[in-house]
């Protein structure tokens, strides 16, 4: 077994752990936010439905703010209140409801997993974190722990960004929190800390603390229910680490959880010395030419052509204006030509490059891609026969466009 972490970074006093759990849970009972998935999980007597309600919320909340998720969650649960209902939905319906929430593969995988539960597990959700992670596609360690603790009362911890920040501050952890060895330590700590009788509430309380009090930039330490257990705060107030028995084994350069010797404590940052900021990876720059093809529909209202993206990869299965990735540093004239060629091959009729009207550029940041859409428009007179061998496509009114499974980026383009 790996050596336990140095005392500064451990929760080694059982009395302190008990007090911390009690303070955190009492605060949660008083201050927790009213959220629809909490109300559903608390009121639902059926274990499978409860697990499903928590699962949907956890998938939606990955990388997305609570305030954005609430409305999507309510619409989703109204439309598909059970796993069985979701399993019968089409991917198109799932994408339509998910449109605007981002990271679209989450909705698709949720639906695939629901189908698996219905067809292979007789409609019953696995009941432990281990089985949830093993049996459900798209359910990782965090989501499995959240579902198992909140829905089924399993005493298992969870580690997400909020929990990492709180743990780093409670125990002065300044090592790179994205390194696998450090993440393992967080999981050990979360599993050791979780309250045995109210694990779901404890996990939600720890995350809630990170989301509302122990926030990244200006934490509200004065209002914090666990401030007396916080070693970062102790260090800020007293200028030195908390008095723990073998604290001298830390901070000399080889402690695996202390900040590196090259990044010493900065007193102007206080508790926000922790967690240490990881070097941000630069997103990849991409340019894509996109063409809004427009036709006059009945009563002169415009109709737009949208095509469906492939069923895997970025924005899988979503609809977009005909688009074409461009090599970097292409001259504008050349961009126009390659786009005209692309449209021509696909529509089976000549498209003159100079007929494409340049509209402007739309920038959209995906998690790892800095995407620039170079937007053109083209008005078409008469009928266009689309090549049936190419991607599925259809003409839509503006209203239909907004109701379709299109990405936020395409809405910006329109
Ligand atoms: Fe976070 Fe401050 Fe509470 Fe420590 S005292 S856990 S830094 S809010």
TrEMBL record:
Q: Where is the HhH-GPD domain?
A: 60-212
The reaction(s) catalysed by this protein are:
Hydrolyzes free adenine bases from 7,8-dihydro-8-oxoguanine:adenine mismatched double-stranded DNA, leaving an apurinic site
Q: Which GO terms describe its molecular function?
A: 4 iron, 4 sulfur cluster binding; 8-oxo-7,8-dihydroguanine DNA N-glycosylase activity; adenine/guanine mispair binding; metal ion binding; oxidized purine DNA binding; purine-specific mismatch base pair DNA N-glycosylase activity
Q: A cellular component term (GO) from this record?
A: mitochondrion
What Gene Ontology terms for biological process does this UniProt record contain? Answer: base-excision repair; mismatch repair
First and last residue of the signal peptide: none
Among InterPro entries, the record links this protein to: DNA_glycosylase (IPR011257), Endonuclease-III-like_CS2 (IPR004036), Endonuclease3_FeS-loop_motif (IPR003651), HhH-GPD_domain (IPR003265), HhH_base_excis_C (IPR023170), HhH_motif (IPR000445), MIG/MutY (IPR044298), MutY_C (IPR029119)
Instruction: List locations, semicolon-separated.
Output: Mitochondrion; Nucleus
Which purpose does this protein serve, as stated in its record? Adenine glycosylase active on G-A mispairs.
Protein name stated in the entry:
Adenine DNA glycosylase
Q: Please name the source species.
A: Furnarius figulus
Question: The organism's lineage?
Answer: Eukaryota, Metazoa, Chordata, Craniata, Vertebrata
């Amino acid at each position: 077994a790996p050596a336990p972490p140095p005392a500064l970074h451990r929760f080694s006093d059982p009395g302190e752990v008990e007090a911390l759990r009690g303070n955190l849970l009492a605060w949660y009972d008083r201050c927790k936010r009213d959220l629809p998935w909490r109300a559903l999980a608390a009121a639902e007597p059926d274990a499978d439905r409860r697990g499903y309600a928590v699962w949907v919320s956890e998938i939606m909340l990955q990388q997305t703010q609570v305030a954005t998720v609430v409305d999507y969650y309510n619409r989703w649960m109204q439309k598909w209140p059970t796993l069985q209902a979701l399993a019968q939905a089409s991917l198109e319906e799932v994408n339509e409801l998910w449109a605007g929430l981002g990271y679209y593969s989450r909705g698709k995988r949720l639906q695939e997993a629901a189908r698996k539960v219905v067809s292979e597990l007789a409609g019953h959700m696995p009941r432990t974190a281990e089985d949830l992670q093993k049996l459900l596609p798209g359910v990782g360690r965090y989501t499995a722990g959240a579902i198992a603790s909140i829905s089924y009362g399993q005493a298992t911890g969870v580690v997400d960004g909020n929990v990492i920040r709180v743990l780093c501050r409670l125990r002065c952890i300044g090592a790179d929190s994205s390194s696998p060895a450090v993440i393992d330590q967080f999981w050990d700590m979360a599993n050791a800390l979780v309250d045995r009788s109210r694990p779901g509430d404890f996990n939600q309380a720890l995350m809630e603390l990170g989301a509302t009090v122990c926030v990244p930039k200006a934490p509200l330490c004065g209002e914090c229910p666990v401030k007396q257990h916080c070693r970062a705060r102790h260090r800020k107030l007293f200028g030195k680490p908390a008095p723990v028995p073998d604290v001298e084994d830390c901070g000399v350069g080889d402690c695996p959880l202390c900040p590196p010797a090259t990044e010493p404590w900065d007193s102007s940052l206080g508790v926000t010395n922790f967690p240490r900021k990881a070097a941000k990876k630069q997103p990849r720059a991409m340019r894509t030419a996109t063409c809004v093809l427009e036709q006059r529909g009945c009563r002169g209202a415009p109709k737009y052509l949208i095509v469906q993206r492939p069923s895997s990869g970025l924005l899988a299965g979503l609809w977009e204006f005909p688009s074409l990735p461009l090599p970097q540093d292409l001259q504008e004239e050349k961009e126009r030509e390659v786009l005209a060629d692309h449209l021509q091959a696909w529509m089976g009729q000549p498209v003159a490059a100079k007929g494409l009207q340049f509209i402007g550029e739309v920038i959209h940041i995906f998690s790892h891609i800095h995407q620039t859409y170079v937007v053109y428009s083209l008005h078409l007179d008469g009928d266009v026969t689309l090549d049936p061998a190419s991607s599925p496509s259809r003409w839509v009114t503006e209203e239909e466009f907004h109701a379709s499974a299109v990405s936020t980026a395409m809405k910006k383009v329109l």
